[in-house]
């Protein structure tokens, strides 16, 4: 994709959001590992989601400086980090902003 397409949001019509590497559920919260490239490496990036009974969705995103050499390693590390965040902060992690 050319520089201008990236800059102004153009691209093929089939493009979607970030690629999901994997997901799991811990204590009723969904952890999603998201692909985030840093050159030839993958950066640890994920989202923790809570769905309310009425269908509303709360989500917080976390990004760490960790760089990993494969998508599989990034997925495992991201899901483990998400689980650690949930164990440490529980559902109170949704009380503050959008990022952890």
From TrEMBL:
InterPro entries: Transcription_activator_HlyU (IPR018772). It holds the Pfam family HlyU. It comes from the Bacteria. This is Transcriptional activator HlyU.
């Amino acid at each position: 994709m050319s520089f201008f397409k990236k800059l102004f949001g153009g691209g093929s019509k089939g493009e979607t959001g970030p690629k999901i590497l994997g997901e799991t559920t811990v204590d009723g919260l969904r952890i999603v590992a998201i692909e985030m490239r840093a050159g030839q490496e993958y950066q640890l990036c994920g989202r923790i989601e809570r769905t309310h009974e009425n269908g509303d969705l709360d989500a917080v995103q976390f990004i760490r400086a960790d760089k990993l050499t494969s998508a599989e390693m990034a997925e495992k590390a991201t899901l483990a980090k998400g689980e650690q965040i949930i164990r440490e902060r529980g559902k109170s992690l949704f009380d503050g902003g959008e990022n952890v």
